[in-house]
Amino acid sequence: MSSSVALHGVTVSYGTRAERVTALDDIDVSIEAGEYVTVIGSNGAGKSTLVNVIAGAVIPSAGQVRIGSADVTRLPDNRRAGRVSRVFQDVTAGTCADLTIAENMALASLRERGRSPFRRILSRRRTAEFHSELRHLGCGLEDRLKRPAGLLSGGQRQLVSLVMATMGDPAVLLLDEHTSALDPSMAELVMNRTDTVVRERGLTAVMVTHNMRHAALYGDRVLIMTQGRIVDDISGRERTALTEDRLIARFRDLAGGEITDRIIGV
């Protein structure tokens, strides 16, 4: 079941007192259960650190992180695995290349179901469920369950990773630039399928992206970050009326970021 996420006074700092680098600077943000939030910002703005703090991969120097009613501030990522799922920028990170699609999905089911024997998770009934999950994507992957993940294209592996990450309906789904390594046509397909999955399952989702067009098209809110701070939070009617051009102009005014082809999404 989806959960709210709240960060209160979260600061992440690295280095010595003489050479201190602040990646997140006193962040306060609340995300409602079922809300889909997009995060944009220039390189070094703190976007990935923000999702790493929610995932538990980075423990904040100060502040509190809550998922639902639970204080998870000091819990490392392995102890948040039951609450938080993630799709990474690296298309190889979400699946094991030597395992088949079905075997990869079975491993995701082990996370969902606890310590059930692996052979039971690969039962005929569960394989039929995997087939159904993939068929819902409309990409033909359901007919390749016995194919090793390493033989799939990058976009196909991201689609499998997306399905695996959302099996069992996690409390929070984190999407860390998950289309940036894909060619434009496959990135559009993955984004379209991502939006469908998030909306249909009512997931709480946080998506980091450099692509302004994707940021303008997808999500209920847009957060703009710079120098470790959230400098704008666009929601409601203002979010509904947001266009790519308006977002680029706003980003330039607030973050002072250079607008590159990668940011625009050319």
Description:
The protein is an alpha/beta fold. It has a single domain, classed as P-loop containing nucleotide triphosphate hydrolases (Rossmann fold, 3-Layer(aba) Sandwich). The protein contains 10 helices and 10 strands. Strands 6-7-8-3-9-10 form a 6-stranded mixed β-sheet, with helices on both faces. It has a 4-stranded antiparallel β-sheet with strand order 2-1-4-5, with helices on one face. Helix 2 runs parallel beside helix 5 and helix 5 packs parallel to helix 6. One of its GO terms (molecular function) is ATP binding. InterPro entries: AAA+_ATPase, ABC_transporter-like_ATP-bd, ABC_transporter-like_CS, ABC_transporter_ATP-bind, P-loop_NTPase.
Largest sheet: 6 strands, mixed
Low-confidence stretches: 260-266
Report the span from N to C terminus.
36 Å
Specify the helix fraction band. 25-40%
Structural class: alpha/beta
Number of beta strands: 10
Shape, principal axes of CA atoms: globular
InterPro entries: AAA+_ATPase, ABC_transporter-like_ATP-bd, ABC_transporter-like_CS, ABC_transporter_ATP-bind, P-loop_NTPase
Protein name: ABC transporter ATP-binding protein
Organism: Actinoallomurus spadix
Keywords: ATP-binding, Cell membrane, Membrane, Nucleotide-binding, Transport
